[in-house]
Design a protein that fits this description.
353 residues, alpha+beta, Rossmann fold, D-amino Acid Aminotransferase, Chain A, domain 1, Dna Ligase, domain 1, 3 domains, six-stranded antiparallel sheet, four-stranded antiparallel sheet, 13 helices
């Protein structure tokens, strides 16, 4: 098949996406597909061939990419774009996507997981992997996802949605409980997340989070073990436990820097806990109308109760990511995982070509 692996984009998770996309593209090429990596925002401005010829590009246009300890400078990314267009789709992107049999979405964060790309592709008749636009948007919005969790009986920490301005911070600092977790409404990879323990830290967190737009959820801070559970097709995968090496929060650096955290898969949990988390993940996946795959994150508290924090519709596919580790524990290597995601997606969204 001719496959575009769409990655990059213009979200704080841009570098994570490019590393995911590079791995996916090379895995699909090893499976015999004519796959090519395309940066959604920067596009392929230097490519001069016809769209169909792009699929024969050496190494699928994959380069050497890595994830730094800090999120990328998106203003610098904007300045580097050749045409300086405000469009999220860069030069040549829609043309080569239209020429593909399917687009494998390697995007992460707001630029790719919030449903806008999926809606555009639906309108253009471009098949793609993963969930549709409505399910993606619901899962990406943490407040909507929390409401669905509560509706289908998935245990989640007490929470509150806020839209605020600088002038509201003194009042909110007195009203909100501490310790707590402050999370931007549509973030991922632990970007835009703070865990204040005092009112002074809460005020600083609310002030800092304004740079993301001032729309957050504030939830009770739970202490326990970090567990993630993936869904592939109609089944849940073995759980994985994440232990940051520093003994602190599983933040952006801990997630993606080699050696910054320890992942144990299958996680050392009881059979009952494994079943409760797996069934909760699958129930939430279905309630949101997700397709092909997803991954839910839990805190397992001191009493052994699993609390669901959020669900990801395009979970990371980097070498350090959790879903590939879960698949490996279930006997599936990385290339086979990519192939199954492709097949599961095409089963519900077949190509008309």
């Amino acid at each position: 098949m001719n496959i575009v692996v769409l990655a990059g984009g213009l979200s704080p998770e841009r570098q994570v996406s490019l590393v995911s996309g590079t791995g996916i593209c090379r895995a699909l090429r090893n499976k015999g597909h004519r796959a090519v990596l395309v940066d959604m925002y920067l596009g392929i401005p230097d490519y001069r061939g016809r769209e169909q010829e792009a699929f024969d590009a050496p190494d699928g246009l994959c380069g050497e990419v890595s994830i730094q300890t800090e999120a990328p400078d998106l203003e610098a990314v904007r300045r580097s774009r050749a045409d300086q267009s405000p469009r999220l789709f860069g030069p040549g992107v829609l043309e080569v996507c239209t020429a593909a049999d399917v687009v494998f979405l390697g995007l992460h964060g707001e630029c790719g997981e919030d449903g806008r790309v999926q809606a555009a592709f639906d309108l253009l008749g471009i098949p793609y992997t993963g969930s549709g636009y409505l399910a993606s948007g619901m899962a990406m919005n943490k407040a909507v996802a929390k409401q669905v969790m509560e509706r289908v009986g998935v245990l989640t920490p007490p929470w509150r949605e806020l839209i605020y301005e600088e002038k509201d911070i003194p009042r909110l600092t007195e009203e909100l409980p501490v310790p707590c977790a402050v999370k931007i409404i549509n973030g991922g990879s632990s970007l835009g997340v703070t865990l204040p323990d005092t009112r002074e830290e809460l005020a600083a967190a609310l002030r800092d989070t304004l740079r993301y737009g001032g729309h957050v959820i504030v939830e009770k801070k739970l202490f326990g073990r970090d567990i993630a559970v993936g869904v592939l097709g109609d089944r849940y995968l073995p759980p994985v436990e994440i232990i940051p090496r520093s003994g602190t929060y599983f933040d952006y650096a801990a997630k993606y820097q080699a050696g910054a955290s320890q992942e144990i898969c299958p996680a050392p949990v009881t059979e009952k806990q494994r079943r409760i988390m797996g069934e909760a993940t699958l129930r939430l996946h279905r309630a949101l109308g997700l397709t092909a795959y997803s991954r839910a994150d839990f805190i397992l508290d001191a009493d052994g109760r699993p609390w669901c924090l959020e669900i990801n519709t395009l979970p990371g596919m980097t070498p350090a990511s959790l879903l590939p580790k879960e698949a490996a524990a279930a006997g599936m290597d990385y290339a086979a995982l990519c192939q199954e995601i492709l097949e599961q997606s095409m089963a519900v969204r077949p190509t008309a070509r």
